[in-house]
Design goal:
Blueprint (H helix, E strand, L loop, with lengths): L1 H9 L5 H9 L3 H23 L2 H16 L11 H22 L3 H10 L10 H10 L2 H11 L5 H8 L3 H17 L9
């Protein structure tokens, strides 16, 4: 029954702006429709920052609680993803830091020492993931926002609160690194 309710809510054809206007009028169904529309994206983004499913779900809840507290009176001046992105990012970073304070680094070191390093002559999605993970956080973030989340450069600049030129530079540098790395050259043939 929950899946049926979710599919009915996701079929809400109102635009984000129409749903926000309805929320400002107290329409709880409008919030549910936006939640269903953006929860997978927010969870995926939170997972990229935290690397932990449980933390990502916690961040999802905190993000939509933050969003809900903006009502009534909220005015959307950009795409909703652009508005939500900084909240998801900051909540994810805080959750990850909190979780890291409670983890044992000795256990992690033992796992790393005992984990064999694989060598392969063929490029794979794993190679791409490794190289992307090795990028600086700033470069990786711009790259993922552009090619995973589908944000345009202006939306990325607004979401991250940085100049458009910085977004362009970071994206260029990230792509250059990927093109030059022998493990990922084949992806750019």
């Amino acid at each position: 029954m929950d899946a049926q309710k979710d599919s009915e809510k996701s079929l809400d054809t109102r635009t984000d702006l129409e749903l926000i206007a309805a929320m400002n009028r107290g329409d709880d169904r409008a919030f549910e429709a936006l939640y269903v529309r953006y929860r997978d994206w927010a969870t995926s983004l939170a997972y990229r920052f935290t690397g932990d499913e449980s933390l990502a779900l916690d961040v999802l809840q905190e993000t939509f609680l933050y969003f809900l507290k903006k009502f009534p009176g909220f005015k959307l001046t950009a795409e909703l993803k652009t508005f939500l992105y900084p909240a998801v990012k900051n909540l994810s970073i805080a959750a990850r830091r909190k979780a890291e304070r409670h983890q044992s680094t000795e256990g992690e070191l033992a796992v790393l020492e005992n984990h064999p390093v694989e060598t392969s002559t063929t490029a794979s999605a794993d190679d791409l993931s490794v190289v992307v993970a090795s990028l600086s956080e700033e470069h990786r973030e711009v790259l993922l926002l552009r090619f995973v989340d589908g944000l345009n450069l202006g939306e990325i600049a607004e979401a991250m609160g940085i100049p458009l030129g910085t977004v362009k530079s970071r994206l260029h540098n990230a792509l250059t690194t990927l093109r030059k790395d022998p493990r990922t050259k084949t992806f750019f043939g």
